[in-house]
């Protein structure tokens, strides 16, 4: 459309932006200080580029703005801020071969956007957001059938899964060749009459990417745990396993690969399961002789949590420590932190209580998984939690100011409730 000079143009600008952050992710998006001189030694420069940087930066997003902050020194230092003329629906970090993290955005414009933070060529201290990929996948606007409500990214940056509130799912394959980002055409995984509550990406190493989803059947109102697998060889996504669970299911968080922590995951005795559990699952346990990693997730119910796996070998339950006089206790958010030889998960309940959850190997039961939970601390209700490698935790609060906490200790694991 060619506009004449006499035409009236309308320009929309947000005068006062939102103060609450609805999305957040951690990574290493840009160097804290600009590099003024290039290293003449090519070998040393290559080693620096290949060296994995600590993820001490956090990208925060309101519905209309993006902010990048650095927390290396234990304080929240804002690096840059950009306005986005759209409503951001989902945001995540994409890790590729380069030492810098890419940012994935999904907005009501109906586009999937992948970009990175770079410095201006002439102004070293000026930072801009460079768009590398921007492709429409649906009509503009916030719609229940548009795959913009949930975003999950493979841990090794191989694919991106977009989920709508109802029915539709899209999966994009990502690849980096010669520092160039390449995105494939989307693969569809649609299910009619199902509403997606929450999604999670599973830790399967370099096996076929796996995603877990909590879905509600709109016909009988039953709740399901569904595992989707992207077959990289055949280039299609399938529903691998489905479990029908109780109606108070409301939360999911992935668990790291337990085999790397010497915990048994494959040859569990199936006869320990009840007949009812065998009737509920569809297809679980058929791949017992497979060499693929068996992914695990932790599910949150009213007053208890459960550890489930793709093949249906395990269904471990443990009650959530409750306050005296409290009615219902359920999980609202959580975060995972990996150490050198172990890992732990922090979960927050609707009362603000933090619980430390661990999955250990049971020496008395052929090193099968053992689920434990302990009370850790109490914080205001948070939208999301992020644990950094320097011993700090950023809490994105639902109301009030965001807080950066420092760990004094990891708590006492002697007093816990277990299965």
List the helices and strands and how they pair.
Layout (H helix, E strand, L loop, with lengths): L22 E5 L14 H9 L6 E5 L3 E6 L6 E7 L4 E8 L5 E7 L3 E9 L7 E10 L13 E4 L5 E5 L5 E9 L2 E4 L3 E2 L5 E8 L8 E8 L5 E9 L4 E10 L5 E5 L19 H6 E2 L13 E6 L2 E6 L5 E5 L11 E8 L4 E7 L3 E10 L5 E11 L3 E6 L4 E6 L5 E4 L10 E2 L1
Antiparallel strand pairs: 1-2, 2-3, 3-4, 5-6, 6-7, 7-8, 9-10, 10-11, 11-12, 11-13, 14-15, 15-16, 16-17, 17-19, 18-20, 20-21, 21-22, 23-24, 24-25, 25-26, 26-30, 27-28, 28-29
Written account of the structure:
- This protein has 419 residues and is mainly beta.
- It is 4% helix and 46% strand.
- The chain is built from two helices and 30 strands.
- A hairpin with a 6-residue loop joins strand 3 (65-70) and strand 4 (77-83).
- The longest helix has 9 residues, at 42-50.
- It is globular and about 80 Å long.
- The chain starts with 22 loop residues before the first strand and ends with a strand.
Quickly describe the structure.
The protein has 419 residues and is mainly beta. It has helices at residues 42-50, 275-280, and strands at residues 23-27, 57-61, 65-70, 77-83, 88-95, 101-107, 111-119, 127-136, 150-153, 159-163, 169-177, 180-183, 187-188, 194-201, 210-217, 223-231, 236-245, 251-255, 281-282, 296-301, 304-309, 315-319, 331-338, 343-349, 353-362, 368-378, 382-387, 392-397, 403-406, 417-418.
């Amino acid at each position: 459309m060619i506009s004449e000079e006499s035409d009236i143009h309308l320009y929309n600008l947000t005068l006062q932006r939102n103060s609450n952050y609805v999305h957040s992710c951690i990574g290493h998006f840009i160097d804290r200080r600009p590099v003024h001189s290039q290293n003449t030694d090519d070998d040393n420069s290559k080693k620096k580029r290949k060296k994995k940087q600590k993820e001490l930066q956090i990208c925060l997003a309101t519905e209309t703005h993006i902010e990048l902050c650095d927390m290396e020194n234990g304080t929240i230092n804002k690096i840059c801020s950009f306005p986005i003329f759209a409503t951001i629906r989902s945001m995540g970090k994409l890790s590729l071969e380069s030492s810098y993290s890419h940012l994935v955005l999904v907005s009501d414009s109906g586009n999937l956007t992948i970009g990175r933070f770079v410095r201006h060529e002439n102004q070293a201290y000026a930072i801009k957001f460079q768009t590398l990929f921007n492709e429409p996948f649906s009509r503009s606007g916030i719609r229940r059938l548009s795959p913009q409500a949930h975003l999950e990214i493979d841990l090794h940056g191989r694919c991106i899964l977009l989920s709508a509130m109802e029915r539709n799912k899209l999966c994009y394959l990502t690849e980096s060749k010669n520092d160039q980002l390449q995105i494939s055409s989307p693969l569809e995984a649609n299910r009619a009459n199902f509403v997606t509550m929450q999604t999670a990406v599973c830790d399967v190493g370099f096996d076929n990417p796996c995603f877990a989803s909590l879905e509600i059947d709109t016909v009988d109102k039953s709740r399901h745990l569904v595992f989707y697998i992207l077959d990289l060889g055949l280039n299609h996504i399938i529903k691998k396993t489905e479990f029908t669970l109780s109606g108070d299911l409301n939360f999911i968080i992935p668990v790291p690969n337990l085999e790397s922590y010497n915990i048994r995951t494959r040859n569990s005795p199936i006869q320990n399961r009840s007949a009812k559990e065998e009737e509920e699952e569809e297809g679980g346990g058929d791949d017992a002789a497979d060499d693929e990693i068996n992914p695990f997730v932790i599910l949150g119910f009213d007053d208890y949590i459960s550890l489930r796996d793709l093949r249906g070998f395990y269904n471990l339950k443990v009650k959530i420590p409750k306050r005296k006089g409290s009615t219902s206790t359920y999980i609202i958010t959580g975060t995972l932190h990996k150490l050198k030889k172990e890992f732990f998960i922090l979960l927050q309940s609707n009362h603000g209580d933090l619980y430390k959850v661990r999955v250990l190997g049971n020496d008395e039961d052929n090193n099968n998984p053992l689920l434990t939970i302990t009370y850790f601390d109490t914080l205001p209700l948070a939208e999301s939690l992020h644990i950094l490698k320097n011993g700090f935790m950023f809490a994105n609060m639902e109301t009030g100011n965001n807080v950066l906490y420092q760990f004094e200790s990891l708590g006492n694991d002697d007093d816990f409730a277990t299965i």
